[in-house]
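Whiteboard transcription, Tuesday session. T.W. wrote the structure tokens on the left side:
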């Protein structure tokens, strides 16, 4: 009988009284001990916020693919909120350094290997700007990437990024213009002599045989390597005037100045316009513009860049890499690294490759049939394997300014290529000494 009294409500003085057990139950119900939404507060406190900067072109397929992957990551991880901001690719490193100096760096940022070379030495309060990811990635994680790509994300031993893509230049052509001129298509056995002969034969009226910005050092790098030159020696010392470098500069500039197969004053944007309007039969360009040419209904084809008869070496374009870097200032480095690994994963890289012709760095994708049977992706991957990986050094990040002056001086006829490159080499070495 005493046990039953715990469950009974008695009538006292004509009023119902709640028994002790029910009092405890009611007090434990949500909202009875406090008017604050405790459960909501706890959920809000558990939300991880990540600020991510990307440098994909506005309204591009790359941006759309990236944003869809961010949405997928948040769906997989409901406790994570990712805020994304777009920054211009050429300004990514500078904007990141400014933000870091003000203590407002994003958790994650997309940077190229040469941009890592600019940032690697910078310190704020004695601390580097980027997290060394060696302790965040397991040996299995690292083994999934092409060693050349992973090495490009290192700066003086520190792993400052996870490689998500790689790219380089190659030779593209419009087969319709070749057919109209009765000229055989380019092939991988071509030499530079073959290229020049075809470009000369294709140059007629308002059509030029070739389009490339002859004064842009980035386009010259591959020819320099083909002629036997190099930007740096094994110790990283500048060798802009190494054997073959001047010959490569003359060959490229003479495409416009002597042979007239490149339209006068061609720049990176105007060369695209020429090719899109069928005013150029061939163009030296990268996979990043392939979708643009396809949209313009150009029946574009790709082939390896030629070899140099004098050396027997193939033109070896500079291979650059882009990846995801975690800020040293991030309060959520673990989650930022997880997101970086996801954005650099085989699954995401494959979608980027198929949708946007972005070249992958995951070695398993090199053998993936959807990649290997795609003539565009596989063709550029073949070219990449013949390319010259860009070193991730401060010197590489600084090489362009003295070369701009060198090309301008030779183009204007004010200096010969040998003297101009020697002067550029001296200027770069002086700039580097000024940093030490």
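and on the right, the sequence the group agreed on:
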């Amino acid at each position: 009988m005493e046990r039953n009294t715990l469950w009974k409500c008695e009538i006292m003085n004509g009023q119902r009284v709640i028994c002790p057990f029910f009092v405890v139950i009611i007090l434990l119900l949500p909202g009875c001990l406090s008017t604050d939404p405790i459960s909501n507060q706890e959920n809000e406190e558990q939300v991880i916020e990540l600020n991510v900067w990307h440098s994909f072109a506005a309204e591009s397929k790359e941006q759309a693919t990236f944003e869809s992957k961010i949405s997928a990551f948040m769906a997989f991880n409901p406790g994570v909120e990712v805020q994304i901001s777009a920054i211009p690719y050429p300004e990514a490193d500078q904007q990141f350094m400014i933000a870091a100096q003000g203590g407002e760096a994003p958790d994650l940022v997309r940077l190229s290997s040469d941009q890592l070379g600019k940032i690697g030495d910078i310190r704020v309060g004695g601390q580097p700007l980027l997290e060394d990811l060696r302790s965040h990635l397991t040996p299995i994680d690292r083994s999934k990437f092409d060693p050349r790509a992973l090495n490009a994300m290192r700066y003086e031993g520190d792993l400052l990024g996870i490689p998500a893509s790689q790219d380089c230049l190659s030779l593209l052509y419009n087969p319709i213009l070749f057919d109209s001129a009765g000229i055989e298509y380019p092939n991988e056995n071509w030499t530079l002599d073959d290229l020049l002969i075809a470009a000369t034969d294709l140059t007629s009226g308002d059509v030029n045989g070739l389009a490339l910005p002859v004064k842009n050092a980035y386009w010259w790098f591959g020819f320099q390597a083909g002629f036997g030159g190099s930007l740096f020696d094994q110790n990283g010392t500048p060798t802009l005037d190494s054997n073959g470098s001047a010959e490569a500069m003359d060959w490229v500039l003479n495409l416009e100045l002597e042979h007239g197969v490149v339209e006068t004053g061609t720049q990176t944007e105007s060369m695209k316009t020429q090719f899109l309007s069928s005013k150029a039969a061939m163009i030296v360009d990268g996979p990043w513009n392939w979708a643009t040419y396809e949209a313009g209904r150009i029946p574009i084809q790709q082939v390896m860049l030629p070899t140099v008869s004098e050396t027997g070496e193939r033109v070896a374009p500079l291979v650059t890499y882009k990846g995801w870097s975690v800020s040293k200032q991030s309060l959520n480095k673990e989650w930022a690294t997880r997101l970086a690994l996801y954005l650099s994963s085989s699954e995401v890289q494959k979608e980027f490759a198929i949708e946007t012709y972005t070249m992958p760095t995951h070695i398993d994708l090199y053998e993936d049939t959807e990649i290997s049977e795609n003539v565009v992706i596989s063709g550029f991957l073949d070219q990449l394997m013949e390319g010259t990986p860009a070193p991730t050094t401060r010197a590489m990040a600084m090489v362009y300014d003295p070369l701009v002056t060198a090309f301008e001086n030779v183009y204007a006829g004010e200096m010969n290529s040998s003297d101009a490159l020697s002067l550029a080499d001296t200027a770069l070495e002086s700039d580097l000494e000024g940093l030490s």
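Someone added at the bottom: The chain has two domains: 48-167+321-389, 170-316+399-435.
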